[in-house]
Specification:
This protein is mainly α. It is 54% helix and 0% strand.
Length: 152
C-alpha cells in the first residue's frame, strides 16, 4: 500500500495530505499486519509517529503478532520514540501473543536506556511471558548483567 511506503520513506507532507483526505488510513494495516503507528516507530520516523498520534492513531494498536509500537521500539532501541509513546499514554505492560512486554523486549535485546525509562515510568517487572520468564530472567539468560541488575 502506497501509504505505508510513504511512512517507510519518511514522506511527511504526502502522509499528512493522505490522512487529511482519508482518516481511516490511521486504522489500516499493511500486508504484514502492521498498523501505521507501529510502522512509523519501527522505521524511526518520530515526526510521522507524532503526527499519527495527533491525528488519532490508536497508541496501543497491535500487529499480527500482538506487538505494540512501544514493544517495537523497545527492542530497536529508539529512546526518543519510546518517550513519545509513553508520554502519549502507551500501555507499559501490554503483552503480545507470546506474553512479552516492552520491558521483556528491552531486556532480551540489551536496550539499557529503554529498560531504565520503562522502569522509571512504572513498568511491571514481575510479568512473565509465555515461557514463564520475567524481563530480569531474560537478561540473565542472555548475560546482560547491567539490565539484570537494573531489574532486580
Amino acid at each position: 500500500m502506497k501509504f505505508f511506503n510513504l511512512i517507510r520513506s519518511g514522506n511527511f507532507e504526502e502522509i499528512k495530505k493522505l490522512v487529511k483526505e482519508d482518516p481511516s488510513l490511521l486504522s489500516k494495516t499493511d500486508e504484514k499486519g502492521f498498523p501505521p503507528l507501529i510502522m512509523a516507530c519501527y522505521v524511526d520516523q518520530q515526526e510521522i509517529a507524532a503526527y499519527l498520534l495527533e491525528s488519532g492513531a490508536e497508541i496501543d494498536a497491535r500487529d499480527a503478532a500482538g506487538n505494540t509500537a512501544l514493544m517495537g521500539v523497545s527492542f530497536k532501541g529508539n529512546l526518543e520514540v519510546a518517550e513519545l509513546l509513553i508520554d502519549n499514554g502507551a500501555n507499559l505492560d501490554a503483552q503480545n501473543n507470546q506474553g512479552a512486554t516492552a520491558l521483556i523486549f528491552s531486556a532480551m535485546f540489551n536496550q539499557k536506556a529503554i529498560a531504565k525509562l520503562l522502569m522509571e515510568k512504572g513498568a511491571d517487572k514481575s510479568i512473565k511471558d509465555a515461557h514463564g520468564k520475567t524481563a530480569s530472567e531474560h537478561a540473565a539468560f542472555k548475560g546482560f548483567e547491567e539490565i539484570k541488575e537494573l531489574l532486580s
